[in-house]
Amino acid sequence: MASITIRDVTKSYAKSQVVHGVDLDIASGDFVVILGPSGCGKSTLLRMIAGLEEISGGEIAIDGTVVNRLEPRERGCAMVFQNYALYPHMSVAQNIGYSLKVAGVPAAERTQRIQAVARILELEPMLDRKPAALSGGQRQRVAMGRAMIREPKVFLFDEPLSNLDAKLRVQMRSEIRKLHRRLNATSVFVTHDQVEAMTLADRLVVMNGGRVEQVGTPGEIYKRPASRFVATFVGAPAMNILEGVVELDGLSLLGDSRRLAIPRVGLPVGAKVAMGIRPEAVRLVAPGSQGALNATVDLVEELGAGRVIYVDLDGAAFSVVTSETVHPAPGETVGLKISPEDMHFFSSETGARLDVFKASVPVPAH
Amino acid sequence: MEKRVTFSRRTIGILFAVPQLLLIFTFFYWPAGQAVYWSLTLQQPWGGGNIWVGLDNFRSILSSADYWNSIAASLVFAAISTGLAMFVALVLAALTDRQLTGSRFYRVVLIWPYGIAAPALALAFRFILAPEAGFMAVVNQAWPGFWDPGLDGVDAMASIIAAFSWKYVGYNFIFFLAAFQAIPRSLIEAAAMDGSGVIRRFRDIQFPLITPTIFFLLVINITESFQDSFGIVDIMTSGGPANATNLMVYKIYSDGFKGLDYSGAAAQSIILMLLIIVLTIFQFRFIERRVHYR
Amino acid sequence: MVERTPILNFVTHLVLFIGFVLAVAPFVIVAIAASHNLKDVNDVPMPLLPGSDFWLNIKTAWTTADLGPKLLNSFIMAAGVAAGKVIISALTAFSIVYFRYPGRTFIFWLIFVTLMLPLEVRIVPTYAVVANVLSPYQTILDVTGLSWLIEKISGVRIALSFGLLNSYTGLILPLIATATGTFLYRQFFLTVPDELTEAARMDGAGALRFFIDILLPLSRTNMAALGTIMFLWAWNQYLWPLLVTTDQSHATAVTELKQLIPNIGGIPEWNIAMAGTLIVMLPPLIVVVAMQRWFVRGLIATEK
């Protein structure tokens, strides 16, 4: 078990910089998930921790030791790769035991440890098979076993579930979680799948454009997204955003046609603001109800347990998740009710969260 | 194309290349450089000093009727044997690619000749084409004096062409067949749906698509006709009769090792090297073109 | 294809059959001629039914050309060239694909150029180098003044001399000194997923370990293909062994064929000559038939 400290780490290739000064502290035994869209630098960051990429600037320390100049094998990390990277010419047992062989562990001990790992991962019956003869889930487990056998200080996962089908992915997810509870080793897991991220993480790191946008528990990230990017990236369907302008008596949305009478605190008149509301926080009411916004239904997606209703709000696309037994038809007019405490505000310029409105007493829209 | 992942120990990296570099320096670059040096000097056999003569060696070679005769013989040999070997192979490969019954069998047997050493097949052909025994003797019985590679230069040339072509039909066949089989089946089927028949499809689809292979083989065949012909010539004709089959490599060998004229042999080597380099560069132009087809 | 083309099919079968006959006839004729006695083989036309002297002729050819040791020499040379190629090309390709060092591109081109000039065209100076394989280094020492310096300082006169004529080393090494194979491996190495390398590094394997434990086992098919091609190519070499083996002890089977050419004058002993030819062409033919897949694959891969 080990803590990881990342200080102002940057990565640049010949022409472009892909990681811009990342700071991150990972506590010993934490399961940290780095979430972000492809190309956000999350894999690069992981590979820099692993020692597979050189660190262009800044420092990475594992357990207080700066590892910038250490070879991967000297860092005490193990990694599970996206496409498993199993050695095709070696049997399952050989794949799992290869790192021990390299380290010069005697054969008897090696066999014993391979057996132990195989037992945990239920790989015992297939130890003599080649990777080609395994199913996707089995390969995944071999890749995990290969990481586990070294009893590393840190586990690194590079989108390890993305090659599995949906059902298997859910199953492996819980297996990884269980395994972590059992081994309690510091783990860093990279993914672009937010469900995976939310379900696995003790702490979630959201990255975008080579920068860390927010660090927090999944709950914090969902409830108080630190930026417009995080707000729209985490949560499905994505958070609805309405652009608005700060006015003397509140906030005008949708180009003046709607007005939220929210006291202006600390923002100059004319400042551009984005208001966000999660689809699951919007309530459907009868059109014309008190304090409701009228909208036209575009499309209804049935999810079984509920449905997603896409509506047109004076030209802005808006989505609503509802489990109520209402069945609006496309073209129908519905009323949307939004509680002010569910609203999130972000600066239109920087995308940063604005907490200025939050403290004030909300006044319903007229 | 480059690897994203590399190892960081540079010194070790170079060490891996050292055996190869030592070999090519000692047995390739040094001799090649030596050939240039010798071609510009008058070299005493095996030491004993040398005199700088500039381009004199080249001048004397290029003014020698023997040398021009050797070039002419080489070109005739290259042109006819390449044409023959490629045409026959192309036809056989195209027909094998139709995949009628037995095509698998032909695919196996037709490449055998390429495995045979040039001198061995030369000896076989020397017997088969011998004027007094073997098979051409039958023809000679009907028309006495019709065939004698030992006396008639044209007959001798025909003999070595036959032997060389026989071997390289096998070689070209392998490549042509691979090229035909690399053409996506769907392309042929699309053409069939468009209403074109077997012959038409060959002309309009298959043939244009294998032109890169044709150019590639053309260069390889010509280059091989310069070098792999040595064993054939040495066994079948020894360059005779009257130098009719004294091809360039054979002449380099006989001038250098039999006549002990190292400077002359070196100058001939340089000319042959230049010829092959030009051909190779020509080939690269077409390899680039080949990429466009993919 | 469902279309019916009976005439074309007939022509196809006919032409392919003619091709087959032309490809196989020389083998058959050689075999039949090798079975005749001296009189029959010189008959015009030669009887097409095999004679009864096959084993006798084989035995005569075997002893006349001393084929036992010669075949062994051929085998040693071919195996040596194949093994050397397979190993050295792999090492070189590993170096240029998996490392970044200054001059890498230059080395790449240095090796690439060797594809252009076959041994045959630089035969005379190569022979001189093999006569004293250290002569390039001696010359470098002389020209740079180093040997003068060393003589002045230590009083030792440097005279590097190490002849490789009439040795297996002399037979084999110059045949290895080309780029064929290096590029075969290079192409293959470039297709090996980067993740495998990374996984090996995470598992603690260094460059050498990765090369031996992962890369070479993965290259097995390429090694088989390259080995087959190089074995055949080396077995079939003629000019080079002819020059380097001035002494009979290291001559190869292919160069010995020359001993079997019937003398002018007298009745030519074609039956013996053909028996010898048969013996010499058989090993490569067996390799081609047995290793057909690797042979074809290797041929196409090395030339591209």
Automatic annotation (TrEMBL), chain A:
GO terms for cellular component: ATP-binding cassette (ABC) transporter complex, substrate-binding subunit-containing. It comes from the Bacteria. Residues 4-234 form the ABC transporter domain. Coiled coil: none annotated. One of its GO terms (molecular function) is ATP hydrolysis activity. Gene3D superfamilies: 2.40.50.100, Nucleic acid-binding proteins (2.40.50.140), P-loop containing nucleotide triphosphate hydrolases (3.40.50.300). It is a peripheral membrane protein. PROSITE patterns: ABC_TRANSPORTER_1, ABC_TRANSPORTER_2. The keyword Zinc does not apply. Keywords: ATP-binding, Nucleotide-binding, Transport. It is found in: Cell inner membrane. Its main location: membrane. This is Glycerol-3-phosphate transporter subunit ATP-binding component of ABC superfamily. Belongs to the ABC transporter superfamily. One of its GO terms (biological process) is carbohydrate transport.
Automatic annotation (TrEMBL), chain B:
CDD domains: TM_PBP2. SUPFAM superfamilies: MetI-like. One of its GO terms (biological process) is transmembrane transport. It holds the Pfam family BPD_transp_1. It is a multi-pass membrane protein. Keywords: Cell inner membrane, Cell membrane, Membrane, Transmembrane, Transmembrane helix, Transport. Residues 71-283 form the ABC transmembrane type-1 domain. Belongs to the binding-protein-dependent transport system permease family. This is sn-glycerol-3-phosphate transport system permease protein UgpA. The gene is ugpA.
TrEMBL record, chain C:
This is sn-glycerol-3-phosphate transport system permease protein UgpE. The chain crosses the membrane at residues 7-34, 75-99, 106-128, 171-189, 272-296. Keywords: Cell inner membrane, Cell membrane, Membrane, Transmembrane, Transmembrane helix, Transport. Part of the ABC transporter complex UgpBAEC involved in sn-glycerol-3-phosphate (G3P) import. Probably responsible for the translocation of the substrate across the membrane. PANTHER family: ABC TRANSPORTER PERMEASE PROTEIN MG189-RELATED-RELATED, SN-GLYCEROL-3-PHOSPHATE TRANSPORT SYSTEM PERMEASE PROTEIN UGPE. It comes from Mesorhizobium metallidurans STM 2683. GO terms for biological process: transmembrane transport. GO terms for cellular component: plasma membrane. Residues 71-291 form the ABC transmembrane type-1 domain. It is found in: Cell inner membrane; Cell membrane. The keyword Transmembrane applies. InterPro entries: MetI-like (IPR000515), MetI-like_sf (IPR035906). Belongs to the binding-protein-dependent transport system permease family. The gene is ugpE. Its main location: membrane. The lineage of its organism: Bacteria, Pseudomonadati, Pseudomonadota, Alphaproteobacteria, Hyphomicrobiales. It is a multi-pass membrane protein. It comes from the Bacteria. The complex is composed of two ATP-binding proteins (UgpC), two transmembrane proteins (UgpA and UgpE) and a solute-binding protein (UgpB).
